[in-house]
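This section describes the prediction task in plain terms. A model, or a person checking by hand, is given the sequence of a single protein chain and must write out its three-dimensional structure as a string of tokens. No templates, partner chains or ligands are provided. The sample shown here is typical of the held-out split.
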Amino acid sequence: MFLRIHIQSPGFNLQTVLQAEALPELIAFVQKHRVSDPEVLKRGRDARQTARSAKAGSGLIPANEAPVTLTADAIAVRAYIAAKPAEALLAGLRAATFPEKLLVATGWLQAHGPENAPPNRRDIKRLLVRLGHEPPANPGRDFRTAWTEGWLTQAGELCITVTNEGWAKIGLLTEDKE
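The expected answer:
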């Protein structure tokens, strides 16, 4: 008989198989170092849940506290995007990264949709696929990258909106490339 153990901690993961003779020592070790104070266990569980929801956020980027108020430059880029077909915009992005493609697709959907109804992630990925672009292998990472760059922010439960910085980036990516 063998014992399989798995020890997991932030930044550390150990999986191994032990001989059966190690069981009494393993039990003694666990009993000696066990955390049994309910308050300590609750703080650890709450911290893990907070970290997990902040990291994963159901796969979403963190929510913006206030709605995005567009600058005059951002409104001009939005109007430019609204006048262009998605095929033409995305065709000019041959060397763009996936976060940039997601940004332009989000901007196009936002410019063509109702003012107060930003697109959701599924709509953005569907647009890319419909236009013949390969969807990102890791869309969560790419959406987070666009958020980290300041281009996108969350607008509601599953919706994403373009920030002023994002509209400026779209302007740079699409200017006179057609």
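For orientation: The helical segments are 23-33, 38-56, 72-82, 86-91, 98-112, 121-130, 139-148, 164-174.
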